Inverse folding.
């Protein structure tokens, strides 16, 4: 299926401007289509996130690669990226929440979107973002986290997660996410009575979906083709189910 690409400008509740990459199937007709927001890893929007959004559009979904940093902010140095991401992660409710909610609001403005059928996926830092969306009980059908941080929101009641199906794809050899965090995530999801699936992919390390991961120069970060393909297949299956 051919798709169109455009830039979508939007604002968060603080008035900060963002610019995401929007992909829409060309043959929408008069039908309303489901939408999926793609939240990036620590580098922000790269060709990887764009390709994932494009792939989703080819499956018949409207897809937005969300901008986590702000319009015109496209760092290429990894230390600069970490410098931007760190305060967002350290203050998830005060600083990160407005950023991730803005992208969901933005995709709902797209022509032909079915606002009752919205989902989200995220990689690494983006995985944390989509799990937080579920924790906030945003009206999403499904969220999928790939090698994302699993830590619960600090000092927040474990309210039930209602109406959002969750997939969390984790590398069994991920040295960046300790076993204690994995166990804590399971306990949290059970306490929240969440509809969740946790997949631990054998021998996969952190960043296993990213084909360029081996070039990042980060210990414990490595591409794993088998885990990447299996987790993506499971994602498409989930969206087919919930949409």
């Amino acid at each position: 299926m051919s798709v169109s690409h455009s830039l979508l400008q939007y604002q968060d509740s603080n008035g900060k401007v963002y610019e995401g990459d929007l992909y829409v199937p060309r043959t929408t007709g008069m039908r309303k289509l489901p939408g999926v927001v793609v939240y990036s890893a620590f580098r922000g929007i790269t060709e990887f996130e764009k390709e994932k959004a494009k792939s989703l559009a080819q499956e018949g979904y409207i897809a937005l690669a969300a901008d986590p940093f702000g319009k015109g902010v496209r760092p290429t140095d990894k230390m600069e990226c970490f410098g931007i991401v760190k305060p967002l992660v350290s203050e998830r409710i005060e600083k990160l929440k407005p950023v991730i909610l803005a992208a969901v609001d933005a995709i709902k403005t797209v022509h032909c979107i079915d606002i009752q059928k919205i989902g989200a996926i995220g990689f690494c830092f983006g995985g944390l973002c989509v799990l937080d969306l579920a924790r906030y009980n945003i009206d999403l059908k499904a969220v999928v986290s790939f090698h994302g941080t699993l830590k619960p929101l600090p000092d927040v009641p474990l309210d039930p997660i209602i109406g959002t199906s969750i997939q969390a794809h984790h590398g069994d050899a991920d040295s960046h996410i300790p076993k204690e965090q994995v166990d804590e995530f399971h306990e949290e999801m059970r306490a929240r009575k969440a509809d969740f699936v946790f997949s631990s992919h054998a021998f996969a390390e952190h960043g296993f979906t990213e084909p360029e991961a081996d070039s990042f120069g980060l210990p414990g970060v490595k591409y794993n083709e088998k885990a990447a393909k299996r987790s993506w297949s499971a994602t498409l299956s989930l969206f087919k189910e919930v949409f």
About this structure: Residues 225-242 form the longest helix (18 residues).
